[in-house]
Design goal:
single chain; 309 residues; mainly beta; Neuraminidase; 6-stranded antiparallel sheet; 24 strands; globular
Length: 309
């Protein structure tokens, strides 16, 4: 190939290199020949590499929310992103629309431990964000300005009860029937039955049995939650679990009926990363995202799946 032809080829391919954001990724074990596993059908997995309009790498994404064809994402560095996403049975396209730094009510950019945003949920035309350090849930505008702090269950207001500062309010969700529900990553100190996680609304609690640390919660329907849990070690075994919890099927001790929908275990060949975010995008379809921890050795994986029972 002569030089002019090589130059033509380069300029034809350059836009692809410039705007390529997603690569196919195999989440399932290499020996597995089906996309269905337990009660989950994995429709698509993409390895995403994104940058802001200023060229900064988008990483450490910790949760997702979806509304009116816009995918919202937060990072644990206090950044809020708006994406245009195109999906059917595959993730077809993902483009950044806007990015914001989270700011307090005076417009000051959140810094240090104040900015450790972990949970995200749609609340009308606004967003609820939960924070792991300096544990709190706040109502935000969609351009990242704090509007007010939300009142939490009294058991969550005592900061000495958290296992450690970095094990705070990892997840948040909302619906009209139950209101705001949030949950710590790990069970609070002083809880006698350590095998149960506790979901906290303003004046009510619900318990469910599950293994792992909480990373995200999302309503499936009016009375049912989908819970994302994980155990993640860079070296050694890691797993991601999806658990369904029925808030309207609880005993007198507030322990609710729950069921394991899927458990993806690295020891069983699953190519998983540090999954932390979850959102519902259609009647029975969900997105799940991993936090790459800003590490060269980890990936931001975006998974589209459905519940099949």
């Amino acid at each position: 190939m002569n030089l002019p032809n090589r130059l033509k080829l380069f300029f034809l391919l350059f836009p692809v290199f410039l705007f390529a954001q997603m690569e196919e990724f195999r989440l399932l074990p290499d020996f597995y020949d089906s996309t269905s596993f337990m009660k989950i059908n994995i429709l698509d997995t993409k390895y995403i590499q994104l940058k802001t309009k200023k060229g900064k790498t988008i990483s450490e994404l910790s949760d997702l929310a979806y509304c009116n064809n816009i995918l919202y994402a937060i990072s644990d560095r206090g950044n809020l992103y708006h994406f245009n996403i195109k999906m059917d049975k595959k993730i077809r396209d993902l483009k950044l629309l806007q990015s914001f730094s989270l700011r307090d009510g005076e417009g000051e950019k959140l810094r240090g431990t104040e900015r450790d945003s972990e949970g995200l949920a749609v609340y009308g035309d606004k967003l609820l964000i939960s924070f792991e350090r300096n544990q709190r849930v706040a109502l935000y505008s969609k351009n990242g300005i704090e509007l007010k702090k939300m009142k939490l269950n009294k058991k969550l207001r005592d900061k000495s009860r958290y296992i450690e500062a970095n094990k705070g309010l990892e997840a948040v969700t909302y619906n009209d029937k139950y209101g705001l529900i949030t949950i710590p990553e790990e069970i609070l100190k002083g809880v006698k039955k350590k095998k149960y996680h506790t979901l906290y609304a303003k004046k009510k609690v619900w318990r469910f049995k599950a293994d792992g640390d909480i990373t995200s919660i999302e309503f499936i329907d009016k009375n049912t939650l989908l819970i994302l849990l994980r155990k993640y070690r860079f070296m050694g075994n890691r797993f991601t679990s999806l658990v369904r919890v029925h808030l309207d099927r609880c005993n007198k001790k507030r322990v609710c009926q729950s069921e394991l929908l899927a458990k993806f275990d690295s020891f069983r060949g699953w190519h998983i990363d540090n999954f932390e975010g979850l959102c519902k995008v259609d009647k029975n379809r969900y997105l799940m995202i991993s936090d790459d921890n800003g590490s060269f050795f980890q990936k931001t994986l975006l998974v589209l799946f459905e519940i099949i029972d």
